[in-house]
């Protein structure tokens, strides 16, 4: 009794999980939720189900490891959990339980002991009736409360603890992977995190896969189907502070949604926020690891990058994969043509573009620089090969791809695409469309169904070596010759996209007069030859600069491949749902086949030359791009990009 009184007089934050369980068992009124308690130890969501549903729910956990990291599955009727806690009784050691009948929450109780006693069979009967405790199986699932202490140690504020509130929990529009009788939407917790501390928050939580691991979404809650942060489905509303970003982790309350949807005759769970406190340290070296979650590895540690402002979206990529894509970015920045392109370089534009494209579903690509105004056709060999390389990889990743071209070049490009299919450079033909000036709303109607900004046709636009509009409204080649009469106003699409939520843009260029290079306009004007006149005025969200624009397209294709073989990025894309952290061997082989190659690029360049398309710098009708012969300059670059890409396969 004296020990109990001493515990009651001590501050709850200083007590061990075992002492806290004892107070909970005694109905200590100070313990309403367990947020902020037992720092340094795992907490657990608890679900108690009839034995006949146990295998299905076990499979459901394995299929959805982020929301449902399984710590322990009990035997039928077992009330203790020796691997997690000593001298525990799951019927009494949670401050509040939920009781469900036929998928309906019928009441909350402070103990299941009396409930289970009431279901014992009458004297003289050997077996208990269906629904008795002996027929029930307990599942203990990791909880994000287990990493809150680590967040504070890393200097990341935990707003719900600061505000004395339960964490906010939301039902999303994201479906979990179904298994047997169980199918339900993903539930997430939300914790506001200062933008400058996002990497710290991601790193700390990544190290604890038993407590849901790294976030599954960072940014606009509407992208998860959450319309009102002030009205959580579970827990309390938590106030954001200036500079905070909404960060969402998968949540074990997903299991409660599974109970509601599967409608078992009888089931129990913890009440959201009232967790079971284990004696297991919240350490990545814990011996309990979900079979579908890999043990943390330094090179797998995710980094956080903003990829969109409207809507706000961040993405995750492992340190190792980010390093590989940065290596690609350095390679394509080489300047054998001595144009001074290095002056326009901005680090991580390639990485951010690849991340944005990875999150996209429908991409429009445009190219075409009619620099040879005295020839027919006036186009150059830089641009189309890089565009086709990106399109090929995007298609293999399941994205929709549309090519946008000038009216004057429509039939020629259609024939070139058909030839690329015939020669095996492309698997299937790509839709080819034009955009011409049709009034002030033409761009919006082109980009959106029925002109409705809430219904965009595309979520990303890419311009590669596409002539860009200068400040005076004209279009100039590198010799400062106005070629406006040969260019349709595709720039208007990039301008309109700025005002349509959900459409991102990328520009790839090698001189500063290309569409999208308006993002680095000041550098072009001051550092590039004739930059004050030729600089493109129209910006893109991401401006990828390269010694030759085609190289930028090749690097985007390689970067997308690396992202889709990166477990940290794939997990984030899938919201932690799905059996495999990486893709199947067949899918990997398909992506590998669809990378650029020397053979494919040489074949496609020869097709362009046959159609009379010339080298940009010299005007030669030859196997060269920007005055540089395909062998050895371009073939060597492709080989090096592939070596850097495929050399990293499966490592990061």
TrEMBL record:
Q: GO terms for biological process?
A: glutamate metabolic process
Q: Which UniProt keywords apply?
A: Lyase
Against Gene3D superfamilies, the record matches this protein to: PSTPO5379-like (3.40.1640.10), PSTPO5379-like domain (3.30.2040.10), TON_0340 (3.90.1640.20)
Q: Which GO terms describe its molecular function?
A: D-glutamate cyclase activity
At the top level, the lineage of the source is Eukaryota
SUPFAM superfamilies, from UniProt?
Answer: PSTPO5379-like (SSF160920)
Q: Write down the InterPro entries for this protein, in alphabetical order.
A: D-Glu_cyclase, GLUCM_C, Putative_hydro-lyase
**Domain D-glutamate cyclase-like C-terminal: start-end pairs:** 328-641
Q: Which family does the record assign? A: Belongs to the D-glutamate cyclase family.
Tell me the protein's name: D-glutamate cyclase-like C-terminal domain-containing protein
- The source organism is Astatotilapia calliptera (Eastern happy)
